[in-house]
Amino acid sequence: MLCCMPGVAFVPALLVTWSSAAFIISYVIAVLEGHVEPLVPYISDTGTKPPESGVFGFMINISALLGVITMCIRYLLIEKQNESSHFVKSSCNMFSLCIGLMGCFGMGIVATFQELAVPSVHDIGALVAFGSGVVYITLQSIISYKSCPQWNTYFVCHIRMAISVISCIAFIPMIVFASRISMTKIDWTPGEK
């Protein structure tokens, strides 16, 4: 089974490293090209115009693929642990995997459809990615608590749940503010709404 093979722990680390590099590299290119302001630009703005749009799209699609692999490994790991402990229903684990895969699909949409080229599709992809991500991390936190103390420590569970709570709290204003703003361009001039 893939999840029981030594060395698969590098996949989540690669996911975080690659995703961070995707945001940083596209940000640096966008700033150097003068396409965004250096101080805290909207993430999608750093992947809207060429040449950074190509880098952003390519790297985020690879991140989505790495996310799928990571989630499948987690799913298989829980299934293997569950064979001896029976701490969670297999259907709950499968539901969590499906929600996570939806989030990765949303990431692929965000990467493929630039913010200004096809804004409605980009926004739907972002909503699916972030919404599914929040649900996935919450379900994984619950599964972690159910596997204590045999397969997890309570410290790890508390950290996961704290990240889940922060994600949930951050998701609410994202929805509220995104629904109030109609973003149609990046460059603004003084006096514009």
Automatic annotation (TrEMBL):
GO terms for cellular component: endomembrane system; lysosome. InterPro entries: CWH43_N (IPR019402), DRAM/TMEM150_Autophagy_Mod (IPR050911). Keywords: Membrane, Transmembrane, Transmembrane helix. The keyword Glycosyltransferase does not apply. It is a multi-pass membrane protein. It is found in: Endomembrane system. One of its GO terms (biological process) is regulation of autophagy. It comes from the Eukaryota. The keyword Hydrolase does not apply. Pfam families: Frag1. The chain crosses the membrane at residues 54-77, 97-118, 124-143, 155-178. Residues 8-183 form the CWH43-like N-terminal domain. Belongs to the DRAM/TMEM150 family. This is DRAM1 protein. It comes from Smithornis capensis. The gene is Dram1.
